[in-house]
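Example record

Each entry pairs one chain with its bound ligand, magnesium ion.
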Amino acid sequence: MEINDACFLISSTDVKKCPKPDKPEFAFIGRSNVGKSSLINMLTRKKSLAKISGKPGKTRLINHFLVNNEWYLVDLPGYGYAKIALNERLKWERFIREYILKRRNLYNLFVLIDSRHEPQKNDLNFMEWLGINQIPFSIVFTKSDKLKPEELDQNLKLYEQQMLIRWETMPVYFISSSITGAGRTEILDYIGNINSESQVKF
Ligand code: GTP
Ligand code: MG
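C-alpha cells for the complex follow.
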C-alpha cells in the first residue's frame, strides 16, 4: 500500500470528540519518546505532520490523521513518563484505556518499543492488558538505526524470550527506523492487507 495523501484532522481530549468511527483506524502507542510521532511522519513521508520533540510527553492528545481518504491513523500520547504529575498521568492513562476499549473501528494498535532497551514491565503489562481485552495489536521495535545488526538481533531474542513467558506465540512485529525508513513498506503493507481483508463496511 502506498500513501498518496495524509492530512491532520483533529486533536481530541475526549473519546466522544473523536471523528465518527466510519473508517478503519490504526493507532500508534508506546512510552513517551519511543518515536511514535516520528514513525507517523516517516510512514506518511511528511516531515512535520505529527509533532516531534526531544522532550518526552510532547503528544498529549489523541491526534487523528486521514490517510488516502480511506483510513484513520492515530498518534496517541505516550505512557509511563515519570516526570508528569501523578494525577495527570492517571488521567491520561484512563483516557487512553477508554479510547482503546471504546473505539470500535480500531483495527490494529501498533505498540512501539525502543529496540535499544531491555523489556520493560509497563510495556509487558500493557500488552498483557491488550490481550485480556482482545485488542488486536502488533509490535514495532523503533530506532533500529541506533544499533548494530548483531545488537538488534540480540535484543529481539531477549524480547521474544520475555514475551513467550506470557504469550503462546510472539505477536506480529516490525523493526523500524524513522531515519533510514526501515519497516515502512512492511507496516504499510500490513495495514493495506488488513483493510482489504476487512468485511466491515462503514
Ligand atoms: P511523545 O509524543 O513524547 O510520547 O514522544 P514520541 O513517542 O512521539 O517520540 P518522538 O517521535 O517525538 O521522538 C522522540 C525523540 O526520538 C526525538 O528526538 C526523535 O528525533 C527521536 N527519534 C524518533 N524515532 C527515531 C529513530 O527511528 N531513530 C533515531 N535515531 N531517533 C529517533
Ligand atoms: Mg509524540
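The chain has a mean pLDDT of 91.
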